[in-house]
Amino acid sequence: MRVPVALVDAFKDGFEPVLTDFMFQQRLLPEGETLESKRYLSRSIAPHVKALSNLFNRMEGSQTDGIDTEAYWTEGGSAKNRRLAYFLSFMPCNLFRVAAVWSELQRLGFKWPFPADGEFRGLEWGAGLASGACGIMAGEKHAPLGLPARGNFALIEQSKAALQLGKAWFEHFSGPGFDARPFHRRVELGRRWLPEAAPRFHLFVSSYFLNESELQAEVIAANLIETCEHHLEEEGLVILVEPALRLQSRKLLEIRKALIAHPKVISGAVPLQVLLPCLGHQACGALNKEDDWCHEEVNWWRPAYLRELDALAGLDRKSLPFSYLVLQKTRKSREEILPRLQGPSKTRHRLVSPTHSLGKKTWEFFMCGEEGKRRARLSRKAISAGNDEPDRGSILQRATLHGEASLTQIDSTEVLD
User: How far apart are CA 128 and CA 167, in angstroms?
Assistant: First the structure.
């Protein structure tokens, strides 16, 4: 994934003033304190960031984000600081992750398929502090797909305190033309996710939401399909962003597997198509081994306060890992939807690991395509067009190969910039 410079740089200097202004308006900062105060960050925020980070990064067992219950947000003397710790430390990272996925759609030539003079209708599942909805707005500002100038997001969240703060933050961050409608309810993933009378939307988005469920992937996939059938517009998008941890990433891969194997999808009754990160409906190569998984990683410029907070909490978030899946309800071909994809589909591959340099002119990496996952080598002289330094998320097109999956030589290819 190659995030545009404009989006990478947007959080370096411009984000913190917007955040600070919002916090003063909402009286979230104590009187006399600022985000430039190391004393305030170290005493009131960093301890909670450490605790949350330890929870989020557990490698085994079920993972909850600890903010779904009203008690987390409202009970105890430090509830306000817990809210601020999540808001200041984790919300911006999740916001950027969603924006990066939006920018990947733009990189591949995706155009918003609905009238530009219409009104946009989006929905975020498990919205929390609206990091998904705000991520869409940030992505559109710096990597535009052509969203209308006005619209709204339905924010569905089970914590009332988080929902109120998320609505206010979204409307402050998105600016004129967009508002949010809060819905205080729990999403039951074991059945259709919306009431029968609910309207249709142009976009569904979720950020670190599905990983909280203990349900089997097949159950989640079946009910997502039902929800899309009745409540997602034709040509509408679904963007799911999840943790990069092995268990949570593999769960998203299992959901993808169940989606493309569902009878309604296979028959075309509900024409859901996987767009990203996979460039087809092939079997997932990462699921062949129990200890394997697939995730993306993007770089960004952290706001100054977040760099300080990371130092205090012992974190290093210059890069952000995550897993993601983008679907579209469409009968168009993938090449129509993503026109920058060129050549036969069987000759396209996405790098799913970092590149390892074998000298100055050769790289080794893992890549996925229609024939599954391969360990591959690529020399500089084999690149006929495009960027000559592929990395995780890069797309190879018109690739000619020889060798086995255990070690494949790429004889020639184009690297999509």
Answer: 9
Query: Which own/partner pairs from 111-114 qualify as long-range (CB within 8 Å, at least 24 positions apart)?
Result: 111/145, 111/146, 112/145, 112/146, 112/147, 113/235, 113/330, 114/148, 114/202, 114/233, 114/235
Q: Are the beta carbons of 203 and 236 closer than 8 angstroms? A: yes
Report how far residue 382's alpha carbon sits from residue 391's, in angstroms, rounded to the nearest whole number.
16
Q: How far apart are CA 50 and CA 56, in angstroms?
A: 10
- pLDDT for position 385: 80
CATH topology of 5-337 equal to that of 345-416? no
pTM of the model: 0.93
- What sign does the dihedral 84-86-87-92 (CA atoms) show? positive
Q: CATH homologous superfamily of domain 5-337?
A: Vaccinia Virus protein VP39 (3.40.50.150)
How far the first Cα of the chain sits from its last, in Å, is 10
Range 4-13 average pLDDT = 93
Q: How far apart are CA 299 and CA 146, in angstroms?
A: 25
Residues forming beta bridges with residue 103, ordered by sequence position: none
The CB-side HSE value for 312 (13 A sphere, CA atoms) comes to: 22
pLDDT tens-digit readout, 296-312: 999 999 999 999 999 99
Does CATH place domain 345-416 in 2.40.50.140?
yes
Radius of gyration over every alpha carbon of the chain, rounded to an integer in angstroms: 21
Give the sign of the dihedral formed by CA 275, CA 277, CA 278, CA 279: positive
Report pLDDT digits (tens) over 345-390.
Answer: 999 999 999 999 988 889 999 999 998 899 999 999 999 887 768 8
Distance CA 365, CA 224 (A): 34
pLDDT for 50: 87
Q: Estimate the crossing angle of helix 91-107 against helix 131-142, to 10 degrees.
A: 40
Query: Would you list the domain boundaries of the chain?
Result: 5-337, 345-416
Condensed to tens digits (0 to 9), the pLDDT of residues 222-243 reads: 999 999 999 999 999 999 999 9
Give tens-digit pLDDT for 106-133.
999 999 999 999 999 999 999 999 999 9
What does the angle CA 145 – CA 150 – CA 152 come to, to the nearest 5 degrees?
95
The answer to whether the CB of 127 falls within 8 A of the CB of 166 is yes
Q: What's the pLDDT tens digit per position in 264-297?
A: 999 999 999 999 999 889 999 889 888 889 999 9
What is the DSSP pairing of strand 372-379 with strand 407-416?
Answer: parallel
Q: Residue 320: what residue type? A: L
Amino acid at 186: R
Cβ-Cβ contacts under 8 Å for 37 (sequence gap 6 or more): none
**Residue 95: helix, strand or coil by DSSP?**
helix
